[in-house]
Amino acid sequence: MRKIKFTQQTISERLSKMLTDFPRLNDIHPFYADLCNTLYDRDHYKLALGQLNTARSLVDQIARDMIRMVKYADSAYRCKCLKRAALGRMCTVLKRQKASLAYLEEVRKHLSRLPSLDPNTRTILMCGLPNVGKSSFMNKITRGNVDVQPYAFTTKSLFVGHCDYKYLRWQVIDTPGILDHSLEQRNTIEMQAIIALAHLTCSVLYFCDPSEQCGYTVEQQCSLFRSIKPLFANKQLIIVVNKVDQLPWDEVQPEKREMIEDLARDANCSIMTMSNISEHGVSAVKAAACEKLLEKRVDARVVGKKVDGVMNRLQVFHPTPRDDIQRQVHIPDSVKQAVADGRIGSADHKPKRSRIGYAATVDDIDNNDGDAAMDGTGQFKTARDLMWENGGPGVWAPDYREQYDLKDRDWRFDAIPEIMDGKNIADFVDPDIEKKLAELEDEEEQLLEELAAQRMGEEPDSDLDSEEEAAVAAIRDRKKIIRNISQANRSENKPVLPRTVRGRAKDKHDRGDRNKDVVKDKMDRLGVDASKMIERGRSLDKTLGRKRGISASRDMEMDENPDDSPGAEISKTQAKKQRRSRSEAAKREASISRGHSRPRDPSQMGLHSDAAIKAAQKLEKQGRRMWEGGAGEGDNRKAVHLVKWMNTGKKRNGTHYCR
Asked: Residue 144 and residue 53: Cα distance in Å, rounded?
C-alpha cells in the first residue's frame, strides 16, 4: 500500500510541477502568447499540457482504486499481485504520454534559449527587408554581438541588446527581415518581427537601402513599408536611410528619393541618414529615437489620472525683486588671493596638483611653482604616472612629508635630529609625561584587579566584612538550591503521591519530612523553636497508637475466640477463610500509595459483584497478551488453497501428492 501511494505521489508531483512551470498562454503578456503560438502552435501546446493533466488524474484514480482493493485483500500474495497491477497500470499511462513529453521537452529547451525581453520597458525596434543593416546598427549602439553576413536571413530570431541614454537603460531589439507578401505566406521567422511590431510600445526604426546592395529595389522597400504601415500606429517612427557611404543621399535618383520622402510624409515621420561603416549618423539616429520615445511616455503620463496627485504636491515659486537697486557679483579678496596662490583652484577653475614632496623624475619641468605638466597637454602628472615612469611599484614611492602640518611649511622636508641639547628627541615629548604615565599605570592595575575579581566570582571593592560575606555566600547557595528544587518539581513527568503518604519514611536512607529529627533540623535552620511542635506530634502519635492497639487487640480476641462472636458456630475452614480475608484487607489498607482513590466495593468500581470484577480483570489480561502468530503484512506464509506451484501448470500422469 505504501509503495502504491509513493508511486502515485511521485508521479503526481512531477506532472504538477510541469503543469505549473510551463507558462499559461492566457495569463502572460499578449506578445509572449502570440510568440508561443507562432513558434510552438497554441493548439498543440495546450493539447500536450491537457494530456498530462488527464494522465495525472488517471494515476490518482488508479491509486485510489487499488489501495481500496489492497485494504480488503485476504492474503499477502493477493496484495502483492494488486501492487504489481497498480504499478503496471501507472507505467502504461505514462508510456502513452511519450509524444507529449517529447514535444514539451523541445519547447522547454527552446524557451530557455529565448532572450530576456521586457515588453513594458523603453524599447527601440528595428525592422525592414533582409540585409539592410539592422544587425550592424545593433552591434554599434549596444554590447550585443549579432552575426552579420552578406546574405539574407542571417538573423532568424529576435535578438535583444541594451544601451544607455540619459542615464537610462534602453532595450534594443533586432528583428528578422520581412518580405513583401501577404500575412498568410509569411513564415515563422518573419512572423516574429510582425508580433514584435504589433504588441510592443517602442520607437521603430525602418531601414532603407537606397544603394540596393541588399538585393531589393527601392520600390520593393516602399511596398513593404505600405503593407506593414498599420503596425506603426501609436509608435514613434523614423525612416533610416542606411549605407550612405556607398551612395550618398544627395546622389540618389530623384524619383527614388521622392518615393522615400512620400513615405515619410504619409506616415508623418522623419528621415535620417546613416552609415554603419563610417559611423555617420549612428549616434544621431539613436538619440532621435530615444528622445521621441521619452516625449511620448511623458505625454502619456501627463494625460493619465496619476499626474493630478503629483501636481497637487508641487509648488513653483517665482521670486520678485525687493527694490530697484542693481547688485553686482562680489568675490572676497581672500578668495581671489587663494585662487591666485593655487590653494583652492586656478583662475580657470581647474585644480592644481603640486609636485612638492615628490621624488624628481626625468620628465619634470622646471617652472616657478615647482609643478610638472605633461608634454603637449595642460594636464598635470599624477602619482600613478610618475610611479610607472620611474620603475613601477616597489621602486618609486611618493614623499609623504609634503602632507605634514607644521607651523612653518618650510620645515616639512628638514631632517629630524635624534639628539638635541643632549637629550633624546624620542623621549622629549611632554614635561608631564611621567605623571601621565603613572596615572595610566594605576588605571591599568585597577582594571586588572576588577577583571580578576569578576573571574573569581567576587565583587570588586566590597564593603562587607568576612562574616557578612560568608552569610551572603550562604544565602546565594541556598537560593541556588531552592531554584534547582523548584525546577525539578516543576516537571510533570513524574508520579504524584497522595497526601496520605507524603512525608512518610520510605526506607532507612529516606526518613521522610515528617520525621522529628528532620523537622527539628529544618526549623533550626530557619531560626524557629520546634520543641513544642515535636511534643504535640508525640502526643498525637500516642493517642492514635492507643486506638490502633485497642482495635488490634479486639480483632485478636475475636480470632482466638470465634465462638464468642455473634451468630452461629463456624468451622475451622470458614474461620481460616475469614482470617485470610482480613489479612488481605489489611494489606490493601497498607498499600494506599498506589493511587489517588481506593475502591472499597464493586459498586464503587462501576461493577455489581465480585464475579464481574474477576471477569473484567480476565478480559484486561487477555487484551494485554502479546500477539502471537497470524499472517501479517510481512508474513510470507501461504495458505493451502493459494499454493501456486501445487495448483497451476501441466500435471503429469499419476499421483501429484504434495510433499
From this structure: 40
Q: How far apart are CA 235 and CA 163, in angstroms?
A: 20
Q: How confident is the model at residue 358 (pLDDT cuts 50, 70, 90)?
A: low
Which DSSP state fits 332? -
User: What distance in Å separates the CA atoms of residue 167 and residue 246, rounded to the nearest whole number?
Assistant: 34
pTM for the model: 0.46
C-alpha to C-alpha distance for 178 and 187, rounded to whole angstroms: 10
Helices (H), ranges, 424-507:
433-455, 466-489
For the stretch 409-442, pLDDT in tens is 888 888 777 777 777 777 666 778 788 888 999 9
Write down the H helix ranges in 176-281.
188-199, 218-227, 254-267
Q: What is the pLDDT of residues 602-642, one digit of tens each?
A: 555 667 778 888 888 888 777 665 545 555 555 555 555 55
> Which residue is it, cell 498543440?
44
Rounded CA-CA distance 57/97 in Å is: 13
- 516-526 and 531-560 are packed helices; what angle lies between their axes, rounded to 10 degrees? 170
- Exposure string of 476-495, with b = 16+ CB inside 10 Å and e = fewer, is eeeeeeeeeeeeeeeeeeee
Checking if the pLDDT of 36 tops 80, the result is: yes
Alpha helices in 96-182 (DSSP H): 98-113, 134-141
CA-based radius of gyration for the chain: 53
Contact 208, 132 (CB under 8 A): yes
Q: What phi, psi does 165 have (nearest 5°)?
A: -150, 125
Task: Tell me which of 18-22, 390-394, 535-539, 640-644 is least confident.
Answer: 640-644
484-495 pLDDT, tens digit each:
887 777 666 666
Between the CA of residue 11 and those of 22, 63, 87, 93, 566, what are the distances in Å?
Answer: 17, 11, 11, 11, 86
How would you label 575-614 residue by residue, b for 16+ Cβ within 10 Å and e otherwise? eeeeeeeeeeeeeeeeeeeeeeeeeeeeeeeebeeeeebe
CB under 8 Å to 127, separation ≥6 — which residues? 134, 175, 178, 193, 197, 204, 205, 206, 207, 228
